[in-house]
Design goal:
- Two copies of one chain form a homodimer.
- Helix content of chain A is 45%, strand content 11%.
- Chain A is an alpha/beta fold.
- Chain A folds into two domains: 49 residues, Orthogonal Bundle (Helicase, Ruva Protein, domain 3); 95 residues, Dna Topoisomerase Vi A Subunit, Chain: A, domain 2, CATH 3.40.1360.
- In chain A, helix 1 packs across helix 2.
- At the A-B interface, helix 1, helix 2, helix 3, strand 2 and helix 5 of A face helix 1, helix 2, helix 3, strand 2 and helix 5 of B.
């Protein structure tokens, strides 16, 4: 059996999302085999990120500066504010590369079951931002789940009359086949059909 | 979008087996959120393992000492030598906790297609160990794959007449249902049936 440090490494790796005990063991053996190429650089950059990573004070994005690159960029001051549940959703929007405005990360969704109320998310801060920044439109890019849509409705209620509100369109995903789509998506796509 | 250190961390994490770009991003966000509990300890122990991890000079197990705990233990000097393909197989045998002898890690299997010959594995070293150590039995615990079984046959040829040889039994896995087993396994189990 392996040694204490190696066991400790396996235990910690197994706590990452997407890795279990078996894949953690595989990953650790891989790391030890690729010591110079992977293990040492990974340890170094983790050390670095542990020191520097922080949430943007403005939008909640994760970066290494007090105000993130997006919030700091003059080019992104379009007046459009895209509200997302999580930093991973912000990154997904950025990968699509089609939104030129700024973001607001809620940090989750409202959930009566889990006892998550508006004050547990950054909804009060969103209302403040809409009042104090020059926001022309708030785009609700929440996940198309029950909790996501409940949260979107709540935010829409809070901001009604103060700013233009919109949400992402629902419909057939690009490349999607009707046969593989659920009834809800087909129904949403039919209701929102576009005239040619 | 995230910063340079964070991007570098995502890129490195995505090179681990079992993680792709998406799960690497999820893992990194998780790490940043659990900085004190997970990210810092993980960075520290990786740093440590990068320095101390090494292969046992005797058997090829991975540990932090020149000779691994198993090889160094007087209690394990039973004369039984268990031959496995990989360190992960050695660890799997140890988890089962039923083998009290020592191991020999081959470092792979013979493969004509990939150009892996006996000298690329630790087969010559295995022949040496059988000649020089007080080995009473060599147990071939190779995977039940074509390459694993080819390698087992080759080793059996090399060691024939010098030592008692055995291999793991093939049959129905514990908890296994016949309906879900392949024909090869059922056939092996039938051929190796035990009289009650």
């Amino acid at each position: 059996m392996s040694d204490n440090d190696i066991d400790a490494l396996i235990d910690l790796m197994a706590r990452l999302p997407g890795l279990g005990p078996r894949s953690a063991r595989r990953a650790v053996l891989h790391l030890i085999r690729k010591r110079a190429l992977l293990l040492t650089p990974l340890a170094d950059v983790m050390q670095q990120v542990a020191i520097t990573a922080r949430e943007c004070l403005n939008c909640g994005n994760v970066g290494t500066t007090e105000i993130c690159d997006i919030c700091a960029s003059e080019k992104r001051a379009t007046g459009e504010l895209c509200v997302v549940e999580d930093v991973s959703d912000l990154w997904a929007m950025e990968r699509a590369g089609v939104f030129a405005g700024r973001y607001h990360v809620l940090g989750g969704t409202l959930s009566a079951l889990d006892g998550v109320g508006p004050e547990d998310l950054s909804i009060p801060r969103l209302v403040d931002r809409v009042a104090s920044e020059a926001i022309s439109e708030v785009i609700l890019a929440l996940n198309a789940t029950v909790d996501g849509q409940t949260t979107a409705h709540y935010i829409a209620d809070q901001l009604e009359g103060q700013v233009k509100l919109s949400s992402l369109a629902q419909g057939v995903p690009v490349g999607g086949e009707l046969d593989y789509l659920d009834e809800g998506t087909i129904s949403a796509a039919l209701n929102a059909r576009k005239q040619l």
